[in-house]
Amino acid sequence: MGEVALSATGPVSLAAGREMALAGGNAVDVAITAAMTAMATEPGIVSLGGGAYVSVWPVGQEPVVVDGNVEMPGRGLAREAFGRGVREVFTEYGGGVTMFAGPGSVATPGAALAGAEAVRRFGVAPWADVCAPAALACRHGYPVGGAAARYLGFVADRLFGTDPEAHAVVTRPDGSPLGAGETATNGPLADLLDLVGREGAAVLTTGEVGRAMVADLAERGGLVTVADVEAYVPVVRDPVRRRIGAWDLAFNPPPSVGGPMLAVMLAELARRGYYDWADVITVQEAVLRYRLEVHDVATDLEAAGHALLASVDRQGLAGLPTSASTAHVSAVDSEGLACAVTMSAGYGAGVTVPGTGMLLNNALGEPELNRLGLHSLAPGTRLASNMAPTTGRTDDGRVLAIGSPGADRITTALMQVLGQGCLHGADLRTAIEAPRVHIRFDADRAAVVEHESDDGIAATVRSSGYPGHDHGPLSMYFGGVGAAFRHEDGRLLAAGDPRREAAVAVVP
User: Fold this and answer.
1) Mind listing the pLDDT tens digit for each residue in 210-231?
2) Residue 208 confidence (pLDDT)
3) Is the pLDDT of residue 483 over 80?
4) Which residue of 72, 257, 261, 298 is 20 to 30 Å from 53, comparing CA positions?
5) Model pTM?
6) What span, in angstroms and rounded, lies between the C-alpha atoms of 106 and 229?
7) β-pair type (437-441, 482-486)
8) CATH fold for the domain made of 237-327+387-507
């Protein structure tokens, strides 16, 4: 196998991906190895007990997205079982977030299943080899990343303190939160990863670990049942395709929310041709207000997403109908195979599967993904998601894999990076490091322009009439875009965001 460009979540996941690349893995093997390691070594940010999307564009084939997002559980439960098993948690993290945690916030996970399916379809490495670096890091120790340390500084006790095993994963032996750069270990999770490598990712759902998860959650008021884990499968979907400048881009399709919103915003910028900061703000305000008022309360996200795309394709923004924590890995290899993986476990449920060291998600307790209310969805429904891993190609041979963490800032960060790169001709690093804006809606649904320090943005905000909030330069609030790129002549490039811990390499 030739070279692989990798943009990872930090030095631990980068080292894991590098090891796989040196062993002959292709872009999919490398990306999933890095993703599995991130989910094992970034407690509080992501975990194997969450969801993920894997976007793959094979050479000479059509792109696909493997949907391993979390699912609403509760098959076979009586009505009175819903609405229980949660506690309200407030954290000052991110400017203040109120969420639900506990066993009743856990949705049926699928992240590892999606990774395994991507490797089975498109990889060349044995699955056990994909899991091995994550197990090794957990067993022998890994440095805690800055993003995880910052988050745990807010929530280690408040969110994880009610479950002794969960608390032990995110704290020092004396019970204080893990600090950036400190070495942490997770022996039970290392053993679990060895088991996943030997027996397959299904051990986390229909296997012994999945059965233990179901039994423990049932005792504590959770909703995940045997019927839920037996019914869960990763879904291979056709992405949303749009031509943006010279690029044919493949976006995460419905029922994902992030992919369609990103596709609509970029298509509108392309429709305008040259655009400026005023255009960026106008497009964001229109699309994100539509999402807030219409899409987020739709009962059928798949139908709503396709209706949005069709309407905007015909009429532009005039056709708009009316009415937490993530991580990302990108890889492209010298053959032109592209893979983008975005993962999420929400803010964390604050609970583990006993004896495994595996933290579980609180996707049912994330307010922005459950606008219809706690436990309102029908069991078996894939939850809404901001995740938007994207791949792309040009006719002259360029290849791109890109994505970002950042909750609802994922789509606006990628809109601006891809817009500058695909429509303004900016090189990848320049596009990633450029200042950003994001439209937020306050409690009265009035628009506020969150932005980084820039004279042009500040002047546009003043003339727009919207209130603005300057976060300073390169704020983590605006995501952490990571991209891998193949030039038309075959040269590879990986670029990471200085807003987060950029960890990039071209291997070997």
Assistant:
1) 999 999 999 999 999 999 999 9
2) 96
3) yes
4) 298
5) 0.95
6) 12
7) unpaired
8) Glutamine Phosphoribosylpyrophosphate, subunit 1, domain 1 (3.60.20)
